[in-house]
């Protein structure tokens, strides 16, 4: 049945409160509590200079350049939790099931930064001084998940934009963490990041289910929010130091690239919501869906172009290594 109604922020929160409560209970029944300290090789640690030891030496790190870039990017992203908490609390409120979720989600997310930082500091995987400097800059800058969307749309931002954004962002983070664990070539790091990725997946499911309920409730309004989010999506680490450089390295080596973004993040969620099968959109919703379809075609073309450029770049690097080997 076609529906074209629009709801305010407060009306959306009220109408979806029952769905939120059901999904909080679902999450609590599925999640597994864990402790960051269980994933850290503490026996590998030693004092830094302030306590009579030695400070970081790059030669101590067992991580290659790609793994370092990915770990730093992922950790600094997790570090900005106060900004994310503020945004989600403002959009969801702290009442009833919404408030319980905000607190629970924030607590679970906090473990990720604790575990990753402890691992890097104990194993001397990266320079802890530079890491702290970058954390200070990134957290001072903060992050506005709806800022880029707001620049490109006249529609007032609602919680539907927020849940659409975090649905895709949580899944993207899961992919990034999982692939980072693989490139670290350390079973301890891999196990830790698998655990973190599992959390991110459950968080994604919560937000995906809220978005699905929003689609059923106000189809045209929800598809507009989803389309805005996909068209102007940006990871929450965009403002951190060296984000572009590190992002290029991560994309080049298959940790997170345009192909993964489209095929492993955007499309699975859209299929779950049955976006291109629904028959409940009004005229405006139909136009928005066509707009989304057009953008997905552009995204596919961009992914193909990136893959071609990456393949050429990797081939040139391989040729240089081979030539250098022969010269030796």
UniProtKB/TrEMBL annotation:
Co-factor binding details: Binds 2 iron ions per subunit.
Coiled coil: none
Annotated Gene Ontology cellular component terms: cytosol
Keywords: Fatty acid biosynthesis, Fatty acid metabolism, Iron, Lipid biosynthesis, Lipid metabolism, Metal-binding, Oxidoreductase
GO molecular function: metal ion binding; stearoyl-[ACP] desaturase activity
Signal sequence extent: none
Residues engaged in binding Fe cation 1: 78, 109, 112, 200
Biological process, per Gene Ontology: fatty acid biosynthetic process
InterPro entries: Fatty_acid_desaturase-2 (IPR005067), Ferritin-like_SF (IPR009078), RNR-like (IPR012348)
CC cofactor: Fe cation; Fe(2+)
Protein origin, superkingdom: Bacteria
Residues given in the record as Fe cation 2 binding sites: 109, 170, 200, 203
Assembly description: Homodimer.
Family that this chain belongs to: Belongs to the fatty acid desaturase type 2 family.
Annotated protein name in UniProt: Acyl-ACP desaturase
Species annotation: Tsukamurella conjunctivitidis
Organism taxonomic ancestry: Bacteria, Bacillati, Actinomycetota, Actinomycetes, Mycobacteriales
